[in-house]
Amino acid sequence: MNVRQLVMQAVQLGLIITSALMIWKSLMLVTGSESPVVVVLSGSMEPGFYRGDILFLNMGKNPIRTGEIVVFNLDGRDIPIVHRVIKVHEKTGVNEVKILTKGDNNYSDDRGLYPRGQDWLNRDHIMGRAMGILPQVGMVTILMNDYPQLKFALIGLLGLLVMTNKES
User: Fold this and answer.
1) Is there a catalytic annotation at residue 83?
2) pTM score, two decimals?
3) Could you report the per-residue pLDDT of 26-36, keeping only the tens digit for each?
4) What fold, for 34-149?
5) What does DSSP assign to residue 96?
6) Number of helices followed by number of strands (H, E) in the chain
């Protein structure tokens, strides 16, 4: 393999990565969500959503209402949570909203998950509302998180495929 082919394959790999990032950022702008796609990681929302389901999110401008399924981030936690809104308190004139959530498969509300001293979520915690689902496709992500060596093997395999691709 000559240097020119090697450089071309490296450029192709860079274009693939750049394209994926551009698509992700475009989805962020269109949906108004910092994470337009999330994977359900636990069984707390069964039977509505199962572990490994992919959810498509949209934030929108409409007020959050009881019964909606939202994805939220808590201060000090890296992993977002997918749960249903069970109570909403709005203060008129102040534009303040307090939200309480619960997993459909859980016995109690999420106050035990919130940081100490926090009894409600506010709009800043909400990443988006579930607008669509792709069942079980996210199991690949869960497997890669559970088995990190699988993640590196897959990345290596994809890199190898790009580098060994022969164009005429």
Assistant:
1) yes
2) 0.75
3) 888 888 887 88
4) Umud Fragment, subunit A (2.10.109)
5) E
6) 3, 6
